[in-house]
Amino acid sequence: MDASTSTRTATPLQPEARLITHEPYYEPVADEIALFEAACDSRIPVLLKGPTGCGKTRFMEYVAWKLKRPLITVSCHDDLTANDLVGRYLITNNETVWVDGPLAHAVRVGGICYLDEVVEARKDTTVVIHPLADDRRMLPIEKHGELLRAPDSFVLAMSYNPGYQSVLKELKQSTRQRFVAIEFNYPSETLEAKIVAAESGLDAANIAKLLKLAHMTRNLKGNGLDEGASTRLLVHAAKLIKRGVAARVACHGAIAEALTDDAEMLRAIDELTSSIF
Amino acid sequence: MPPLATAALEKRLDALLNPVLSSRRTAAPLAAGVATLPRALQDFTLHWVEVIGRTNYEMAYQFAAAAPEALPALDTQAAEAWIIQAMDSYDREGLYQGSLVFKQYADFAQRGLNAHGVQFNEVATVLERFVCGLAGRRLNIDSAETAWTDTETLYLPPRITVGASRDENFLIYKIIATLLWAQGRYGTFNIDLNAALAHHSEPARALVWLNYLEVIRLEANIARLLPGLARDLAALRGESGESGESSDHDARYAPLRAVDAGVRDSIALLDTLDLQQAVPRRAWLGTLRPASAKAAREARLTREKDALQAALAQLFKEQIQNADGAEENQNFEVRVNHDDNLGADVELTLGGKPLAPPKPVRELLDSIVQDLGEIPDEYLLANTAQEATGEGDGDEQDIAPADGPAVYYDEWDFQRRHYRKNWCALRELEPPAGDAAFVESTLKKYAPQVTQLKRNFELLRGEDRLMKRQQHGDDIDLDAVIAAYADMRAGRELPQRLFTKRHKAERNLAVMFMVDMSGSTKGWINEAEREALVLLAEALQVLGDRYAIYGFSGMTRKRCEIFHIKRFDEPYSERVRQRIAGIAPQDYTRMGAAIRHLSALFETVDARTKLLITLSDGKPDDYSDNYRGEYGIEDTRQALIEAHRAGIKPFCITIDHEARDYLPHMYGAANWTLIDNVLRLPLKVADIYRRLTS
Fold first, then answer.
1. Residue ranges per structural domain of chain B
2. Do B138 and A220 touch (CB under 8 A)?
3. What pTM does this model have?
4. How far is A260 from chain B (nearest CA, A)?
5. B465: pLDDT strictly greater than 90
6. A144 touches B at CB < 8 Å
7. What does the alpha-carbon distance between residue B689 and residue A23 come to, in Å, rounded to a whole number?
8. Among A11-20, B113-122, B392-401, where is mean pLDDT lowest?
9. Has domain A2-183 been given CATH number 3.40.50.300?
């Protein structure tokens, strides 16, 4: 989101604008916060591994707030090139202007650059990530004839979902071995209940039922579902129920339809829902 | 139209059933029976006698014998269901079971009265997933006359008709499945039931009562876990009026509804009941088969014990490595926290330190807790001996002794308009290695053409293209900027498109070649096929497309064979070259199963375009089952439709001059091509491929 705004207006957002002022809600699962801080202090980049919707992005917001550093998030897609990360020339008022991409911007201001779902990006992005991710910590901007050195406060973080079983979406060893990896998984039942309650404000009885349903869909992983219901889906369903939507309807929309298009699987999940609620 | 007369019918039936008729068994009684039917049903009978006769004449005879009485009692839908069920039984269990279904048409007549009946086949997939969601361990679902389970497979009745609506009948299915699952989950078979009931004068009767008591106990458990289902159950009970007897017994059954009630409570309660009374009826009451359950449970426990011990050994080794130099004599311990939620919470510790076991181990632990209620200490001895022999143990079990593991595929029977379930057994085989010199000589033979071919394919290769005058882009398009300034000076509007962009045309394509290895390819055709593959492989190396080559052949449905010449992830190696050279004519072409198997293989490949190209010399054909002709064509067509639905584009290259008659029907008007001269096949194939993919 931020990347596109900056290229269009040719005036990069002020770093302060990316500072997170309010404490985001985050429940630590284990010692991931301490591990992240230690990696930052040691100037080692961080790789967040885990299935979708288990809190990776929220975790980044939380640590950015805690470290009081601007957070620059780039959602990677399959057309994202190295240029999109580093920057490019634009033409304004009879002259060309260099505009930093989000990665260069983060390096300049010493913020946290978070590359979400990095395997989706084009392979040439590794060219700019590698020198930043080892002890050189620099970003060559060839077009601009500049070599940026990252200040100590700069942190490179990326997320990666090992659940995709596709060979094309594997992270290369040369890339992954530069990072400290923090594994995320679905939180334990009590913690998950606490999270869903805090996010949605739903009553405990309904949350317990939602968690049961989540457990059942996770049982189905590999037996027709690629992924079980994530904490995020539970929060969505809980919010809908809290707003007065009937539980079966809410679960159908927020969980069943979000998980699959397969008619029989939808029916099976609906049957599980109607058994619980 | 007037009904057919007995004489005319006798003549027709005589012709249709000739092989099973004799001087003692004539068509006369059949004809007399059929003559009593109205014309529409007579036609229906004759049609199906003919269709069934193509599978088995005796079955057709049995059908003709049963039809006069059965058909008036059934509507068309029920009649077809009756026939399909009979043929299905015949396919699976043979003539005796099949003809038995024909005799039991009364069951279907019952169903004919109830348009809301739900069939097992309609709900099997949904229920399988439903119980998989509940269970955590994989349970199979199958149909049987009464509902029962051996704790590995849930057997459900073939149809349910007692409900007032389809929804209600489905709900009864769901309740039966849930109760059967609950027998495993809540430990109905955790003690030896036969021994526990031995002191009763009529153990069989006691078992029926025990089943009823268990249902009460399990319903209470389900009510705690699945309140929604319990509510539906209560509503159903109110509607179907089966609550009558339950209120006065409530007090006696109360202990079964306690949170910690177990199968022992049910058995204890049996002694206080008058077993001579009739067991109350419930639509979802199945039967208990303790002996089968015991066998399945014991087999599973042995298996899981071994698996767990091996997994723990692995875990132990990892821990030792990680904690460099930790004591060797630490023990695994387990604490099981039972909650009334799904899956007990199992904590695994090693020498007091909590461990996070990987998912398979957690599932094993959970499964064992379901059977035993705890993890016995001997299960926790990390079995290093087991680990040393490695995973080979598991593999050996999977390999069937004689033929190697087979994959089963359904086959489409166009006459029945139904699939024959698991009809074809297909095996993937290693093809014999041929002489790689063949590849060399082919390349030499076609040397000039190969050079041309490579050049043509190089043109196709996805390369970076610089696109000018773009709205956004990586670099400034200087020409555009200069032109823009000129425009601006001249007072015109400043154009927006001032950038260049590199566009990489990626060929996101995977192609699978399916090569006919039937006996009819012997000679020129086989050689042309092999040469075509050599040239194609050469060209594809240039292009960099992902490709796989499989040969197919076989004889009868029990021996369909696929030879992997080159898998997708295999490089074009010496070994592959030898395999191409080794492609030899084998038996027949049962194409449906081959296409279904290759479609399944395609599912593991991620590509925008998936292309399945068949090299063939004729119609689908097989030794038996009338596969030759319409049956084979329709099955192949159905398999291709399935492939199409899975996002695969099928294409056929044939040398059969009669292909016009059947290929458009199978592949669609545009998805095939005929090469009239076999000798030109090698060069044409590469050419066709180029046209197809550019």
1. 6-113, 118-278, 292-397, 464-504, 507-693
2. no
3. 0.60
4. 13
5. no
6. no
7. 59
8. B392-401
9. yes
